[in-house]
Design brief:
CATH class: Mainly Beta
Structural class: alpha+beta
Shape: globular
Strand content: 25-35%
Number of strands: 8
Strand order of the largest sheet: 1-2-7-4-5
CATH superfamily: Fimbrial-type adhesion domain
Radius of gyration: 24 Å
CATH topology: Immunoglobulin-like
Largest sheet: 5 strands, antiparallel
Length: about 170
């Protein structure tokens, strides 16, 4: 395949300029918007280390304790919006569809969940209830936890390994 591409490029170089010239238009579009807050640049990628989760703990409690993380909204102007919702999405676990699936080659029989700081579960693809904003900086405190799948608990099939997954979040203002 590389050879045929190389030959094609050589033929194009040998072609007279009047045959090789082409005109093209490139159209760009977009929208400049005003938002009430600015996402803290540090929160463009948030890395959360849940540490070591003991399988015996999952067998007896079905989930790990939550590991806190925060989303920081800066320079909030309430004249542009007074509330915010956040939605998380990622690859759903087949057996726990509201949870994040782990990368292949890692732990098995578990998935990762997201909850508020008050321990209210946040299913993937669903908005968190509206959160009231304050002028200036706002911190949205959340937690992640490891959840054991019911059949994996019943059949003692939780397999140790890396706990790695990715979620994206979308912020909407009202």
């Amino acid at each position: 395949m590389k050879a045929s591409i190389t030959i094609l490029l050589c033929l194009m170089l040998l072609t007279p300029a009047r045959f090789a010239a082409a005109a093209a238009d490139i159209n760009f579009s977009g929208k400049l918007v005003e938002t009430p807050c600015v996402l803290d640049p540090k929160d463009g990628q948030i890395d959360i280390d849940v540490g070591s989760v003991i399988d015996k703990y999952l067998y007896s409690h079905q989930r790990s304790p939550g590991t806190p993380f925060a989303i920081h909204l800066l320079n909030c102007d309430l004249s542009l919006g007074k509330e915010v919702t956040i939605k998380f999405w990622g690859t759903s676990d087949e057996l726990q569809p509201d949870f994040l699936k782990l990368f292949k080659g890692g732990a098995q029989g578990v998935a990762v969940g997201i909850e508020t700081s008050e321990n209210v579960f946040i299913p993937l693809f669903e908005n968190i209830d509206f959160i009231g904003l304050q002028p200036g900086e706002n911190i949205i405190n959340l937690k992640v936890f490891v959840s054991a799948e019911k059949n994996a608990i019943a059949q003692k099939k939780i397999m140790p390994g890396a706990i790695e997954t990715v979620a994206d979040f979308f912020i909407e203002y009202q």
